[in-house]
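Record type: ASSEMBLY
Status: queued
Input:
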Amino acid sequence: MATQVKLPRLGQGMDEGKVLQWLKGEGDTIEKGDELYEVETEKVNVEVEAPAGGTVLKVLVQAGETVAIGTTLAWIGEAGEDVPAGGEDGDSSAAGSGSSAELRSSATGSTSESKPAAPAAAPAAKATPAAAAAPATRSSGGASASGRVKASPLARRMAEEQGVDLSSVQGSGPDGRVVARDLEGAVQAAASATAAPAAAAAQPVAAGPGVERIELTSMRKTIARRLGEAWTAPSFILNRTVDMTAANALRKNMLKSVAEGEVRPTVSDILTKAAAVALRRHREMNAHWNEDSILQFEAAHVGLAVATDAGLVVPVIRDAHAKTVREIAADRKVLVDKARNGKLQPMDFEGGTFSISNLGMMGIDSFTAVLNPPQAGILAVGATVDTPVVVDRRVEIRPIMTISLTCDHRTVDGAVGARFLQTLVQHLEDPTSML
Amino acid sequence: MAQMTYREAVKTAMAEELRRDSRVLFMGEDIADMGGSQGVSKGMLAEFGPGRIRNTPISEEGIVGAAVGAAMSGLRPIVEIMYMDFTSMAMDPIVGQAAKWRYMTGGQVTIPVTIRTQGGAGWQSGSQHASMLENWFTHVPGLKVVMPSQPDDARLLLKAAIRDENPVLFVEHRDCYPRKGEVGEDPEEVGELGKGRILREGSDCTIVCWGGMPWAALEAAEQLEADDGISLEIIDPRTLQPFDLGIVLESVRKTNRCVVAHEAVTFGGFGAEVAALVQEHAFDHLDAPVLRVGEKWAPVPFAPVLEAHVVPGKAEIIEAVRSVAYATA
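Status: finished
Output:
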């Protein structure tokens, strides 16, 4: 006997859902548990699995239609089996199997108003004519039974360039050929999947099995907003390696004379000092983008990215150029403690002219940082690793640190960033040059 | 600039070159008093006289053979073959002689002959007066094949053909004769053989077409834009040999789709060559197979209904473009 596919309740407060697309068409053979269709609710897009195996006999609700929960969407049964035109005569227990269908939040899970949902919906709509044309021959993804993916040369090139697996893309061309427009959809979907964590942080997400809902703190909101802004800035990234032999030796020397109760200077403190001195020499880097102008600063107020349980904060070492490494270390200790205890005052994190983010202590070799607008630059600092390097035509083991400077291209050009980095590296490799 | 028909543009080009260079003369069947079967050379006899505007017997082999001999002895003849079908009777002087002499003599002898001919179906002229056979000649090294669709190109490229040191087959499609356009008036202005032209810019699909087909493509483009939102870019190569592959590839790399349309029979036509070149040089840019539009596999029928069925036009172009743009259900 044929089984009804009914729209299940996918979350608290859900009254209706919109069928975004059918992943299988009439005549297709399916297994119980195969993803059958995608539905959009107010909160999420979900791919719903088939409540039974067999042949899709009849699709009653087409893609794009919005119906109440419990509505019969389709019939599944044996090929050739007769089914009622509607859902009224069906086995009512099928509704139960529908509502207990295992849910899988799609990668595009988000509210229907938010951006990521749109690209997911678009390819579905585009694929509709092809689905209507050849539902029986359409295979899952672009792969045929033999496993070969039919795709246009352009689509293949795009997939390679974008790193998309062609077999995961639903082809809309003849016989399921993957063509460029399908891939545009896939790339967008992949992009929205990448963006999904950010979207999830910025917007409330429906609770469900295996999903914990975490209300946003105002700090999380601020991080999301400011880094979202930063992402729109045209930026470029410059990388350098630094031989830290001299800087390490300097720190060792300094540690010898650290008094009881005094903060022990770290390599980070030396780096803060070196950056501040280099910023004084390269004022173009010590700047803010001010939309209609650029503000260059005399004083180097260096922000330090600090991870806390509540999120990322960037307290500022004021006038770092004018402070000794010991003074910087003392300031840094106070600020980091305040940050970890949630005691930072606005004056502690406002007015930075440059930022440093250091993940070296967490074993990160190198990384790039997202700009901290309106600042012109942010330095990403990786771990210092003993590395064989060529010195005077001989291989030596040296402590090498990789740093990466992200610059706001609206404020500075590549050569400015490069010169700043050159000076910074010089200060670190030969700390006396800071004097 | 002057408004004139394609027919007038062809005549203007010949007249200008006859005035410019006393070595240029024009021969063909009924081209003098009658002005040719299509009335192209009407009035030329009065201006240039029977010594340079020469009626010939009905003997295509003789006409072209005489022209090749005249070219060898220093003249620059233009000949008219009344229908393209009749070139079959002049194959040896065209292919065996004109195309080969410059090469075989190491450049000591050139054959600057311009062979004008016309053709095209749709006039119930019967199977022997309606064939488009340009691919016979694009296949012959030593020949140039020019086939413009626009009046200004007809004038400039015919002048270039007459001044060229090589034998040039200049093919006029019958549909083009009454078409009007702005044509330049500077007698020293000459076109360049081997350069294509974008007749209409578009972003979704490239169509490469020549002869009478660009006119059908222009109409098809309007309908595709209105009905399907498909933006068609139309390229008229104007010269088939040498062929401007660059302009085609640049367009295909932009649109990612290509249709080739000619009136000649599809199978083995020059469209197959274009399709092969495009896939060879722009394979990774193609989002669909290159499709050809051409005549069905039949001699052109006389019966109007059958003729319309066999000969390609706007509808066939629209169908092909929709197909490569994946716009058909």
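Annotation: The interface with chain B takes residues 129-130, 132-133, 152-157, 172-174, 179-181 of chain A (CB under 8 Å).
Annotation: Chain A has a mean pLDDT of 79.
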